[in-house]
Amino acid sequence: METIFGVPVVALYGQLVLGLINGSFYALLSLGLAVIFGLLRVINFAHGAQFMLGAFAAWLLLNHFGVGYWWALLLTPLIVGLLGAAIERTMLRRLYTADPLYGLLFTFGLALVLEGVFRWYFGAAGKPYTPPSDLQGAANLGFMRLPKYRIWVIVASLIMCLSVWALIEKTRLGATLRAATENPTLVQAFGVNVPLLLTFTYALGVGLAAFAGVLAAPIQQVSPLMGSQIIIVVFAVVVVGGMGSIMGAIVTGYMLGLAEALTKVYYSEASNIVIFVIMAVVLLVKPAGLFGKDA
Predict the structure, then answer these.
(1) How far is it, in rounded angstroms, from Cα 56 to Cα 34?
(2) In Å, what is the CA distance from 94 to each residue of 42, 99, 194?
(3) Residue 237 and residue 256: Cα distance in Å, rounded?
């Protein structure tokens, strides 16, 4: 059997595909964090809880309203994004002129409240969410049989990530968003509703977390703890890519997912810490991150 550095090729390819799936979630979640921090300068520690809200919203829509997966994938980011818009307009925007630490503490407290409420009402045990019938079964990739739903996760994540990058970097709306964060007074003088743009930005970042939550629901158990289990890794991904870098969040998310997979193959004991080791090395060599701009 053909091997690479002592590991069978089939096993290596299989782990790389699984790493790409994990990287899809890292990229989506870190993209939402990067959007919020890059345009609002808010470290959104509630991002993991909003990821959990997306998964629970899909589960509730299915079990209480009979709304299937595809409609949930469309409706959930809108519902959770509107909730995020309400939070931004009523509470978060009061902290824009304060020290960034206050925004971090507020969103951290919000995450604890959301997680506590769902844990109290639903319990800590996970709830299953069945993937749609047209994405059940597995595809033969030659070296492994991969569930169709996991292939869909990779494709959907890539499409969403590139779409958001194009929206922010290549459209007039994106240019206006960036200008509003750099010089809001000047932009408002041209008749642009800057507060509305800031609300839209936060809602977009929250909606991305909810979209990732819906994608994760059929793979993971829908649980109040699912956000807290991934958010620290996602923050590490954002730091490695560069705080606020949209492309950095996307590329680094997939890259670190693959790095984690390779570590599981060659030195499984370090797979849980490899992302943090990479973060430490990057911060020593390039404190602004791989794609960040040095001050």
Answers:
(1) 23
(2) 12, 11, 15
(3) 7
Quick one: pLDDT at residue 7?
66
d(CA 127, CA 46): 21
User: Which tokens in the block code for residue 289?
Assistant: 């991150």
Helix H or strand E segment including 4: strand 3-4
Those residues with Cβ within 8 angstroms of residue 87's Cβ, 6 or more apart along the chain or in another chain: 110, 202
CA 173/CA 159 separation, integer angstroms: 19
CA pair distance 105, 205, nearest whole angstrom: 18
Whether residue 230 contacts residue 40, with contact meaning beta carbons closer than 8 Å, is answered with no
**Sheet strands (E) in the chain:** 3-4, 7-8, 138-140, 145-147
| Nearby residues of 12 by Cβ (< 8 Å), 6 or more positions away | 4, 265
pLDDT < 50: residue spans in the chain: none
Q: What is the pTM of this model?
A: 0.95
Sign of the dihedral through C-alpha 232, 266, 220, 215: positive
Domains of the chain from N-terminus onward: 3-285 (1.10.3470)
Angle at 74 between CA 71 and CA 79, to 5 degrees: 105
As given in the structure block, the two tokens for residue 108 are 């951290």
**98 by DSSP, 3-state: which?**
coil
Task: Give the phi and the psi of residue 147 in degrees, each rounded to 5.
Answer: -55, 135
3-state SS assignment for residue 115: helix
